[in-house]
Amino acid sequence: MTHSTTVLVVGGGVTGVGVARDLALRGVDVTLAEAGGLGGGTSGRSHGLLHSGARYAESDPEGAAECRAESTTVREIAGACVRETRGLFVQLSSDSADYFERKREACADVGIETEVVDGATAREAVPDLAPETERAMWVDDAVVYPSRLVAATAADAADAGARIHTHSPVVDATVTDGRVASVTVGGELDETVEPSVVVNATGAWAGDVAETFGVSVGMAPAKGVMVSVDYDGPHPVLNRCREPDDGDIVVPHAGETVLGTTSVPVSDPDDYEREQWEVDRSVTECAAMLPPVADADVVRTWWGVRPLYAPDEDGTDRRGISRGFTLLDHTRDGVDNAVSVVGGKLTTHRQMAETTTDHVCDRLGVDEDCVTADRQLPGADDPARLDEFVTRYDAHGETDSDVVAAAD
Ligand SMILES: Cc1cc2nc3c(=O)[nH]c(=O)nc-3n(C[C@H](O)[C@H](O)[C@H](O)COP(=O)(O)OP(=O)(O)OC[C@H]3O[C@@H](n4cnc5c(N)ncnc54)[C@H](O)[C@@H]3O)c2cc1C
Questions:
Q1: Engineering a disulfide at 155: which of 109, 184, 209, 389 sits with its beta carbon 3.0 to 4.6 angstroms away?
Q2: Per-residue pLDDT reduced to its tens digit, 136-147
């Protein structure tokens, strides 16, 4: 069978569903095809930190400002997809005092509020913190449950008219006269789709999908491990206050604590070694901040692959319109009706989607404003309903499998 659609979004991670939601709410006819369940790529396998931006404040002020703004928006629209915990950047006695100061000043420059406390005060708030805690800085980090966020975003898109197809991989495409004329979708959809525009939102797989329409997208994926341990000491999100390194983030869940992560280049996001040293290193490094996790039982481990984009070395084109993510219009590659959106973070997915949708709407001549920042997701304040959406879209992911109710 063949069907026409105005926009075909390929990929049902947080970016793809965000784009589908934004397009549908602007009245654009949209079809989304996802190879597996929603969020089954990187989104459902992330750390689950809703970034205040403090982590990036000194290295990437623009990205940090985006996190600051978008973490506020996600809180407002996503209700029970978010758990308020606050965050603490912890300086141990072996960590650089200069780095702590640089971080604090950079946060102030970006408008991220901080509250500095001495080690004793930090340990009153979090008694299990390491005795070597010199001082710490409160920030506005939180925990986000990706399965709920992805599924509720898709549900809102569907309510606005988007067709969301899971277990429907794009397997081929035909390019005629410099346009993607048709896309072959296998699996449950099993159709040929004739789109006016294709949005490639396949994250770490974006290079493979772009190849089906004859375009090269230079992805440089990197894997990272997460280790969930049986430790329920109440604590905020903990970040080690030092240059980002392995094992420096600890995320609290209900009854478990998630430790991570590593960053190791991989050549294939579907085929990489899951190595024990990554698990051991994450536990050891996180235990330097929070010693009881060293002896806690490991409940589960999982890996995710970052959708990193490596721009051409000449740097003349394909640069993102934001440092946090990259929007590539493949007109420059000779394909007039396809874009790829890569990079970014779970925290900033809505902004990525807005920028992508603005661009696609310009190409289509659609003059409608974005409303996604001002509109709550369906079921936002009803965890049971959110979990129904997760089941509807087969969106159960590793990150929050201890929190989000399992399918019957
Ligand atoms: C270890 C790790 C920890 C992270 N922690 C955080 C964090 O704490 N906070 C944060 O904000 N961000 C975090 N991130 C980043 C964040 O998870 C990603 O940037 C984001 O989830 C990417 O979403 P995406 O939709 O672009 O990609 P994905 O979620 O990977 O979605 C792409 C989708 O495309 C699908 N696909 C692939 N090929 C095809 C095809 N041929 N046809 C159809 N569909 C296809 C895949 O199945 C996949 O579902 C983390 C990333 C990693 C790796």
A1: 389
A2: 999 999 999 999
Task: Give the architecture-level CATH label for domain 83-143+222-306.
Answer: 2-Layer Sandwich (3.30)
Say how many Å lie between the CA of residue 307 and the centre of ligand 1: 6
Q: Has residue 320 got a pLDDT over 80? A: no
Q: Domain 2-44+146-219+309-392 has what CATH class?
A: alpha beta
306 CA distance to ligand 1 centroid (A)?
A: 7
Look at ligand 1, atom 27, and give the residue with the nearest C-alpha.
203
What number does the ligand 1 atom closest to the CA of 261 have? Answer: 1
Residue whose CA is closest, atom 2 of ligand 1?
46
- Taking alpha carbons only, the member of 8, 17, 10, 86 closest to residue 349 is 17
Q: What distances in angstroms separate CA 81 from CA 87, 163, 190, 302, 354, one per listed residue?
A: 17, 23, 32, 21, 20
Average pLDDT over all residues of the chain: 94
Which residue ranges make up each domain of the chain?
2-44+146-219+309-392, 83-143+222-306
